[in-house]
Amino acid sequence: MHGLEEPDRHLVIGGEDGGRPDLHGEHPPSRLDRILGWRRVRFTLIVALPFGLLLARTSGVPVGVGIMRTETLSLVALIAFGVFELWPARLPGWVARWVWQLIGVAVAVPIGTMLAIALTRGYPQVVSATGRAGGYSHLFGMGLFFAPWIALGAMVRQRDALARDQALAFALERSELERQALDARMRLLQAQVQPHFLFNTLANIRALVNAGSPQASAVLDSLIAYLRAAVPRLDETTTTLAQELELVRAYLELMHMRMPDRLQFAIHVDEAARGLRNPPMAVLTLVENAVRHGIDPSEEGGRIEVSVSVREGRCIVRVTDTGVGLLHAGDGLGTGLTTLRERMQLMFGGDAQLRLTGLVPHGVSAELEFPAEPATRSAP
């Protein structure tokens, strides 16, 4: 029983939460509620009922009298249990709280016995009943033998409940810390993507201005519209495919104005996919990569097609280009695709894939596959 020796913990008889503050931050109950809380009283009355029937059977008193006596004795023991649980606030180091509570229950048994007989037979008959079967001795012996064991069982039960609550609290705290760590990692990766897009787009505008292109002003207007759509979403950790494709279209229109004879594009999307969640700028990363590494290096230019479909609970995003292909695009995934792969893994817990495939005679197909999960809220 040494495992119960924690002087500063208040264990509760008769209930699994018995007055302890719950995990939702509710205010702790008053001292009276802790001593005579409804769960405690209900538990005590239920446990005392079969003992009342046993007392009536063995002592010959009426069933109602036997039940009333055991219920009264149990309530007195409950009060003693609760009082000794709270008082004193601190015990000497050599006295365990659970031992102190058992002493309180033992002391309450003779008092509760006298009170129970007094309430059922009248106080003047208490003394005369002490030597009669079915009177004081039966009730006292039953209370002294069973009450401490019941109290001890309640404390063990309460200890188990306390351990479960602590385990749940630790699990919730660990889950919250893991979520915060993932969110911080996602924002860090997002911060790496933001200048990547902005610098590439500004470089395209500079090329037009340096070349004296008459399209420079119109492209600048398109850039402003593009940035107005993109910048508010840069700090978001999730968005919908509908919002993402709106940004993709603005970007492709901007690139088309820069090289109208070298870039054509088309966007195809299933209606069922528009409300699905994905990391911000995920599809845009694939499109920007196709423009920069596929269409730009090609003298003839090429075509970019974006398709989004939903099949068997999975969302498939495919971006194909007819540019120079993988052999001429350089080694490795590059910063954009590398961070995109990690962001997809963070958001979908590893249940996402990024695939790059070379096309014949030239070009690249980039494909994202991830769970088709509706967005819980829309990004602003």
Q: How would you explain this protein's 3D organization?
A:
By secondary structure, the chain is of the alpha+beta class. 57% of the residues lie in helices and 11% in strands. The chain is built from ten helices and seven strands. The protein has helices at 31-35, 38-59, 63-86, 97-121, 126-129, 136-210, 216-230, 241-258, 282-295, 334-348; strands spanning 239-240, 263-269, 277-278, 302-311, 314-321, 353-358, 364-371. The chain has a five-stranded mixed beta sheet with strand order 2-4-5-7-6, covered by helices on one side. α4 (97-121) crosses α6, α6 (136-210) packs antiparallel against α10 and α8 (241-258) packs parallel to α9. It is rod-shaped and about 110 Å long. 34% of the residues are buried. The model is unreliable at 1-25 and 122-134 (pLDDT under 50).
| Approximate helicity band | 55-70%
Radius of gyration: 38 Å
Mean pLDDT: 76
Helices, by number, come to 10
Shape: rod-shaped
Ordered list of secondary-structure elements with their pairings:
Elements (H helix, E strand, L loop, with lengths): L30 H5 L2 H22 L3 H24 L10 H25 L4 H4 L6 H75 L5 H15 L8 E2 H18 L4 E7 L7 E2 L3 H14 L6 E10 L2 E8 L12 H15 L4 E6 L5 E8 L9
Parallel strand pairs: 2-4
Antiparallel strand pairs: 1-3, 4-5, 5-7, 6-7
Helix pairs in contact: 2-3, 3-4, 3-6, 4-6, 6-7, 6-10, 7-8, 8-9, 9-10
